[in-house]
UniProtKB/TrEMBL annotation:
One of its GO terms (biological process) is amino acid metabolic process. This is Aminotransferase class I/classII large domain-containing protein. Its cofactor is pyridoxal 5'-phosphate. Keywords: Aminotransferase, Pyridoxal phosphate, Transferase. GO terms for molecular function: aspartate-prephenate aminotransferase activity; glutamate-prephenate aminotransferase activity; pyridoxal phosphate binding. Coiled coil: none annotated. The keyword Cell membrane does not apply. InterPro entries: Aminotransferase_I/II_large, AspAT/PAT-like, NHTrfase_class1_PyrdxlP-BS, PyrdxlP-dep_Trfase, PyrdxlP-dep_Trfase_major, PyrdxlP-dep_Trfase_small. CDD domains: AAT_like. It comes from Aphanomyces euteiches. Gene3D superfamilies: Aspartate Aminotransferase, domain 1, Type I PLP-dependent aspartate aminotransferase-like (Major domain). It comes from the Eukaryota. Belongs to the class-I pyridoxal-phosphate-dependent aminotransferase family.
Length: 348
């Protein structure tokens, strides 16, 4: 049920090598059908009806509904574009004080949809705040942890797991997988790494839902980790270089567009864009349709410019959109042309 022992051992070696965290592969790692299942099962394990869960916004669209399905109550933790959508420790403390029945903080790092990384120093500050609230667990969604970018003239960025920080191992449920780091999206292999009190309960739930992930996917994951372990250079280096080129291209294009703001992307492969100048301020399409919401804009972009983009309201932030640059430069060029031209076409 918990996954092939060879895969769990390979995962344990990776986490110790890359993150400095030791897990017992026999009892503290549970392999599931993708990280999404791991997230949901973890919530089912730790929540009792009425427990509150802090979810930083912008958030992955599934988090609030997963919390509700598990009997919990989502509480949105606000972040600011001016602070690159990063958690502010003082705001976290104030929100926890205002919500004393909080059981979980969900921390997606790097963030989908914001595309930003919480670095080691900020994570340490967050962990320090959490020491004041010993009943709060952290669900650390680290599926994008290998997708971290560098910028000339800035300190080197690196991902650390919040579970590696002092006092955090026993209260952190780490979620990861192979979809993003190893381009294995369709094979559906994710995992939970946590103290056995959590993995044992999650394993019981999984046994009644899917039993175990595909053996084909698990064998592929073993091969990927074995190859990664023996490689003198990170396997993801080529992918990162390719993604970085597209990241810089997107930023350059957006910088040239008036009234468009975004958080500088430092991880994952998303850019979260705010453009309140155009939303709900009287702008209309040439056909006279009000652009009163980001959903209305996204519908216009798709219908008139044949370009799909996700409205920010789906992620808890209005008057915004999420752009993914996990595609070719050619498609990105056409898509950004469409985005820019759609804004230029709006009239008052």
């Amino acid at each position: 049920m918990p996954g092939m022992i060879a895969l769990r051992r390979a995962i344990a070696r990776y986490l110790e090598r890359a993150k400095g965290i030791k897990y017992d592969p026999a009892t503290e790692i549970l392999v599931s059908n993708g990280a999404k299942q791991s997230v949901f099962q973890s919530l089912l394990v730790v929540l009792t009806p009425g427990d509150k869960v802090l979810i930083p916004a912008p958030y992955w669209v599934s988090y609030p509904d997963m919390v509700k399905l598990a009997g919990g109550v989502p509480v949105i933790l606000p972040t600011r574009l001016e602070n690159s959508y990063l958690i502010e420790p003082q705001v976290l403390r104030e929100t926890l004080l205002a919500n004393p029945t909080t059981r979980v903080l969900i921390l997606c790092n790097p963030s989908n949809p914001a595309g930003v990384l919480h670095g080691p120093e900020l994570l340490a500050e967050i962990a320090q705040v959490l020491q004041e609230f010993p009943n709060v667990l952290v669900l650390a969604d680290e599926i994008y942890e290998q997708l971290v970018f560098q910028d000339e003239g800035t300190p080197e960025r690196r991902h650390i797991s919040v579970a590696s920080l002092p006092g955090m191992y026993h209260r952190t449920l780490v979620i990861n997988g192979f979809s993003k780091s190893h381009a294995m999206t369709g094979l559906r292999v994710g995992y939970l790494a946590a103290p056995k009190v959590f993995t044992a309960a999650a394993s019981k739930i999984q046994s009644q839902i899917t039993s175990c992930p595909s053996s084909v996917g698990q064998i592929a994951a073993i091969a990927a980790l074995d190859l990664e372990e023996s490689s003198p250079t990170p396997l993801i280096a080529g992918t990162l270089a390719n993604m970085d080129e597209k990241r810089k291209y997107v930023c350059g294009r957006l910088n040239a567009m008036p009234h468009v703001k975004y958080a500088h992307p430092t991880g994952a492969f998303y850019v979260f864009i705010e453009f309140p100048h155009y939303i709900g301020t009287g702008f209309k399409t040439p056909a006279g349709v009000d652009i009163d919401t980001d959903e209305a804009f996204s519908t216009y972009l798709l219908g008139s410019f044949h370009t799909a983009i996700v409205p920010g309201s789906a992620f808890g932030v209005e008057k915004a959109v999420r752009l993914s640059y996990a595609t070719s430069l050619e498609i990105l060029g056409h898509s950004l042309d469409a985005f820019e031209n759609s804004l230029k076409s709006l009239v008052k």
